[in-house]
UniProtKB/TrEMBL annotation:
Tagged with keyword 4Fe-4S: no
Domain named Porin: residues: 7-353
Keyword tags: Cell outer membrane, Ion transport, Membrane, Porin, Signal, Transmembrane, Transmembrane beta strand, Transport
Complexes and interactors: Homotrimer.
Record InterPro entries: Gram-neg_bact_OMP, Gram_neg_porin_domain, Porin_dom_sf
Alphabetical list of Pfam families matching this protein: Porin_4
Keyword Membrane part of the UniProt annotation: yes
Topology relative to the membrane: Multi-pass membrane protein
Subcellular localization(s) per the UniProt record: Cell outer membrane
Protein name: Porin
Primary subcellular site in the record, as a coarse category: membrane
Region forming the signal peptide: 1-22
Amino acid sequence: MKKTLLATAIIGALSATAAAQAATVYDQDGTKLDIYGRIGLGIEGGGSQYSDNTYIDSNGDLQGQRINRSGDFVNVGSRLGLRMSQAITSDMTAFGRLEWRFKANSQDAAGNGFDQLRQSYLGVQSQQYGTFQAGNFDSFYLQFVSSPFDVYINNGLHFAGNGKQSRGDSIGYYTPDLEGFTAFLQLKNYSERGYVEDPNAPLSSGQHRTTEQGNVIAPQGGVRYENGPVTVGLGFVEDVQRGGGNGEMMYGLIGQYQFTDQFSARLGYEGRGNSNSASYANYMENNPTKDNGYNTVGLGATYTTGPWAFTGDFYNINRDDGKDNSKAWSLGGYYKVSSAMDVFVEVNDNDAKAGNDRVGQQFDNLTDDAYWLTGVRYFF
């Protein structure tokens, strides 16, 4: 099997410490198939003192039961994927991608093997006309706006991530590079085809009731500018309730400047309007740890030297609806053992306070401990 080292996929400094490798299974007459993946193992500990909507006190007690929050051996983003492409013309290429997650830390955790379909999409790319794709993929907002802050393996990103109104039933388009500018647009469809029309009807196995909203389209779009050391992304997402949002528009303006080959700094803002709808108020009542409107400002930096990379980020999260602000921080250290292996340690504190406005109930004065994760990853 012929093997070639693919170009490194840079996503912040963390990716700079671990070159993305792949095995080319087939490459002939414009048709190519690569197989790639990684195995990640680690130990984690600490973290939030509450789980979902249930408060856990400082001793780890939950409804009279002891909750073990000590260190634990865990899987760290292990996955296996395929990249496919075929040249249509000298300018146009058809492509596809298929990627699964699996748990590598134990046989019991792995179950029958793969536990999630992470990516599955098809598309056409042209250097002249741009790229169109459809299926299940990371949000374009992450790819073109919030990606400078996406440098942590776990828990460090406090701007919108890869699943924001994305991951399935989506179509998207982005332009080719236009003198440093790239514009993008993505549409996510939430369908009720096949649902039970009567919202009061009893449900049989596998059925779902329709909602008052019916089918919903969640758009996101914006523009990114890249020129030399400067990267700036401006984007929006209609954060519909069907996709876990509050029904209001979310905006982001995030940038990065590469001062030297070793040092870069990033600054960003993201905000979402406050919803006054009755349906979201009811949702918040049943999910007190969720946020409504917010304004988040993030500041971070990355420094690399030889095989080492270090990251640090700080976020100020200003919540609406009378909830306390949070000052979250993250630190990371990464060592490149070889072109295919790295070891790492991350520490972050979300300063979680969502839900502490429910005076007199068990959600009062929620706090959290610093979360830590250390481990090793091998890329192939």
